[in-house]
Amino acid sequence: MPTKILVIGACGQIGTELTMRLREIHGNDHVIAGDIREGNEMLMKSGPFEIMDAMDADKVENICLHYEVEEVYLMAAMLSATGEKFPDKAWKLNMNSLFNVLDLAKEGKINKIFWPSSIAVFGPTTPKTNTPQHTIMEPSTVYGISKQTGERWCEYYHEKYGVDVRSIRYPGLISWQTLPGGGTTDYAIDIFHQALENNSYTSFLSENTALPMMYMEDALRATLEIMDAPADQVKVRSSYNLSGMSFTPAELANQIKKHLPDFSINYEPDSRQQIADSWPSSIEDTAAREDWKWTARYDLEKVVVEMLEHLK
Ligand code: AKB
Questions:
Q1: Is the CB of residue 304 below 6 angstroms from any atom belonging to ligand 1?
Q2: Which CATH class is domain 5-171+216-241?
């Protein structure tokens, strides 16, 4: 019997591609897309869709029971930059939505949860390069605080109630299918759109701000791999560090110039600079490599080729 899956936040940057990938694997009818708004045509037409607010516990439960959902991927969240504008809303969305699914699993109404964490769990006092799995974590954004708190609760529900929740600390994700919204790493996608439209880009992060990044294809594979891993191999039940690549806006611009020689970039850092400065510049991911055999396949060169090809 194919697994019945609900993706909450299915119309966002990760949710859209994840839902389509899960539908390929498990069959369209077995993957229910849920979001507060409708998504793109491909997603809406390929399988069941439900309008839902991730904070509405009754609605989430009713949909799970109605479709006999076994696994939930909770992708709804307010990201770092928007979270700083609406701290109260960010906290409520990011925390309440998590408790809704953790409690369903605790009550035995669903079997397994994927919940994404982020490099935003780290803060200014964290070692900046090759940031280890276990280290100082004093996040300075509401988003980061909510993700770090969420990690603690995931581990707690696993330890106390046996909830099978699995999580990855996503770096900035680069993709061409669906635009991101409200993140600090979004520049690394905007730049491709602007390069192709205007041959120039004004970066809201400074030239030498290195951040951990990953191509969506790698992130989707990591998500499916951790969910497929035998339960005893998933030893970290807070969230796993995951490394893809690290680069600065200047390094990304130089790679783009190899394909678009007239492309130019200038720098006008805004409030997102402070957020980026508080995050690691690179991540160490031995635990994920050892526990469930994670390995990244995309480097910067490959990503630039793929992004330009698809967006053209
Ligand atoms: C953001 O920039 O807020 C996100 C993230 C790193 O979690 N992309």
A1: no
A2: alpha beta
**Which tokens hold the place of 155?**
């581990």
Q: CB of 285 within 8 A of CB of 243?
A: yes
Q: Which fold has domain 175-213+245-311?
A: UDP-galactose 4-epimerase; domain 1 (3.90.25)
d(Cα 123, Cα 141) in Å, to the nearest integer? Answer: 8
Give residue 109 CA to ligand 1 midpoint distance, Å.
30
Q: Is the CB of 172 under 6 A from ligand 1?
A: yes
pLDDT attached to residue 260 = 98
Taking the CA of residue 80 as reference, the ligand 1 atom at the shortest distance is 3
pTM of the model: 0.97
Atom of ligand 1 at shortest range from CA of 279: 6
**5-171+216-241 and 175-213+245-311: same fold?**
no
1 pLDDT band (50/70/90 cuts)? confident
- Report the mean per-residue pLDDT for the chain: 98
172-174, strands of its sheet edge to edge: 172-174, 211-215, 245-247
Indicate if 143 belongs to the active site: yes
